[in-house]
Amino acid sequence: MLDALDTAQADLHGGRAPWGRGLRPPRHGSLKQSIKTEVLVVGGGITGSLAAQHLAARGVDVVIVDREQPGLGSTAASTAMLQWEIDCTLGELTNFYGFDRAATLYQRSAGAVHGLSSLVGALSIDCSFRPRSTLYLSAGEAGPSALRDEHLLRQRAGLPGTLLDHAELLSGFGIDRAAAILSPGSAEADPVLLSWGLLHDAEARGARLFDAMVTEYHDAPGSVTVETDGPFVIEARHVILATGYLMPDFVRCGIHQTASSWALATVPQAPGSLWRDGALIWEASQAYNYARTTADGRIIIGGEDDGTIDPAVRDGKMPQKTAALVESLVRLWPAANPVVDFSWSGAFGETEDGLPLIGAVPGMPRILAAYGYGGNGITFSFMASRMLAELCAGRRESWFDAFAIDRPPPAG
Fold this sequence. Notes:
19 strands, globular, about 30% strand, FAD/NAD(P)-binding domain, ten-stranded mixed sheet, single chain, alpha/beta, 10 helices
């Protein structure tokens, strides 16, 4: 696991991604004195910005601290495929937790993407946000029959989607796979611009953003006091940990692990040479690759995940991982111009059941956390922002338990 105090933004991702170009991040000042606030958000990336914006919009006094430029850590490594489909299929979650619970979680995920879309529209955030369908492609042992079973479960859960056979997929999208599920309701964005837009709105509503590193947390019955790398402390009624893939030592979870992923963006493609509707593409396999397009006509493809933790080792693998992704792209879309313009790597957290870790830190009820997003980073970030705001207000719903940090390993 990466150490939260000793790890810098440069350790969270390597290379260069095409996000946030031409704009500057929100300015954050230095702490001049010790302060008090209702909620302290630690981390100014996409999770922290969503939480801060939502809390500020509800009239809560919010302080955000980030020791580096907001949005340029874990968020900058995202490919920002805002899917409601979860890393574990509905079938897998049903085996773990039963159909009713699994269906509810999938429906909540779909609702999160819809909610995020509505929020971006209401705030007029310029972040290349575009609604997208997804193509879930058969791969490996997950052939047409496996996708058919998954599709039937989704229908039972009231989730949208159409099962495509080989002929329909080839004629409709030009993709040569045995089968796919085509589902509406997802989206894509520039994750850095999205994060910055949310922070700007939070600040406009009174949130305060400071350049500071939290070094110690002191959880008391009525408040949490945090020490910083300067002479000042911050006292808050609640603290939200939104530190990307840097999990403090006191947040322990037996079903979470840190891994690495790689991605690239091609040069802009020739007009008319991309697949239909710019659908988000991902594969029905354990270690899947995924692809999307961008507003300026590039193809992004990512994956090649492995258990690398050390940042230097991860970034040293970038040439071979980039080459493997180029090969995957050419197989998936032979018409692509595979010249690489951007390539990058990043750390990410995942769990055994594909569900995030959202809620109170065990034994520290005033410290709330959001980690372990897997391939659903921004979707789960939105969900976390709403859940954590409810918990800060002293309200909780029974379905929150599915994301408990100390939940047992799945039994299926």
